[in-house]
TrEMBL record:
Top-level taxonomic group: Bacteria
Origin species: Petropleomorpha daqingensis
Keywords: Membrane, Transmembrane, Transmembrane helix
Transmembrane segments: 24-41, 47-67, 74-92, 98-118
Name this protein carries in UniProt: Uncharacterized protein
UniProt key word Membrane: yes
Length: 126
């Protein structure tokens, strides 16, 4: 399969989703929205919202690094941690409806980052 960078438009210019930051930005904002849901619904154990704020901030920084620095490592960290969270809460969802929502929130963080436009965004260097 040819990469989008190899597919010129009819006028000779090359266009793909990785060159359209608005598409990548929308996907990262979608991932960030699911991150916010996850941070709000996760019980961090002490009843103190500081842990939720901390992990939300860390997630936002990682998403920013994916967008601005085209970081494959930051993208990988978000995907792996989100998928681990989805598995953990997915297993707990067998008897807890709250865990179902959290598992879906974790999946919602990972899936936009696994789409073609975001993959191409981090593979190409500006």
């Amino acid at each position: 399969m040819r990469s989008p960078a190899q597919n010129p438009n009819h006028d000779g210019t090359v266009s793909d989703a990785a060159d359209r930051p608005s598409g990548v930005r929308a996907l990262l904002l979608l991932s960030g929205a699911f991150l916010a849901v996850q941070a709000l619904l996760t019980d961090y154990g002490d009843g103190n919202p500081a842990a939720a704020v901390l992990w939300f901030a860390v997630g936002c920084v990682l998403l920013w690094v994916v967008f601005r620095r085209r970081s494959r490592a930051a993208r990988g960290v978000v995907i792996v941690t989100a998928l681990v969270g989805a598995v953990v809460y997915g297993l707990a969802s067998l008897d807890d409806p709250h865990a179902v929502v959290l598992a879906l929130a974790f999946l919602g963080q990972a899936v936009p980052l696994m789409t073609g436009p975001v993959r191409w965004h981090v593979q190409t260097r500006a």
